[in-house]
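Good morning C.,

I know you're traveling, so I'll keep this short. The sequence:
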Amino acid sequence: MVYKMKPAEISEIELIGGPLGPGIFAFAKLHGNGNDFILVDEMRQEMVPESTKGQFAIVCCRRSFGIGGDGVLFMNGSDKADLGMRLFQPDGSEAEMCGNGIRCLAKYAWETGYVGQSFEVETMAGIISIQVREMGNSFWARVDMGVPNFKRSCIPAVGEGEFLMETLEGLEISAVNTGVPHCVIFVDDLDLPIEERAPQIRHASVFPEGTNVNFVKVGESFEIRTFERGVEAETFSCGTGSVACAAVARRLGLIGDEVQVETRGGPLIVSFKGERAFLEGPATTVYHGELSDEYRWNLFQEL
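The tokens, ready to paste straight into the viewer:
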């Protein structure tokens, strides 16, 4: 007979030896247009050891057995900016940047009093400037996404020059880096089997680090669907993907300096000032929570 420890018997003594340590483990759940994230506040102390952050994301992002999410945002201090942001994805990999994720982090930082209306966040993609505003019950953030990079070496993609309207897997594809690598494919109809088509491009050998894949229908506003690297599935919204679609369209002369992008989770606004791109959109706090001792004990077994 195997004895299973009851939740009431799991004490701080048992948890002291675990990677998360004893005491309360608090987190917040937020989303930007349905792109949802678990946020862990490490401004005052490290909550998840560096060596286990990836596995923590794998376990906690499971929608049926964990908190569920498209990634885990770790907010920490920075010597170069007001805040630092790191994003670990459901497959355990770390992403350089996330347009929707950084708005969620901005909302949490604004609500908790860490920042004012204008501030900077250090990411693996560089220092990102953010402005926030509240209108009634809505929170919006305007994110300086920097200059989209079309150089193959910076996407990265194999070859020389820019990657614009090239044939791959029977589709005309353009690629750009907007903090992370993105492919952009213009289509007449978005009713297509993305989960079948996108992985072929996402793992194509021409992209040594892989790529996110966006399908775009052009009109007065853009409609897009995005298959995200690291999530390995379609998400409701992708901020860097929306910027990538607008940047490619602008490069090809299809739009001017501003466009509204309709994602499955809601609208985003992408604008340009010179060569710099800006992303504006909402973020919503879903709830604040604490990991139960029972869940932390089970988590300890997997970490």
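Safe travels,
E.
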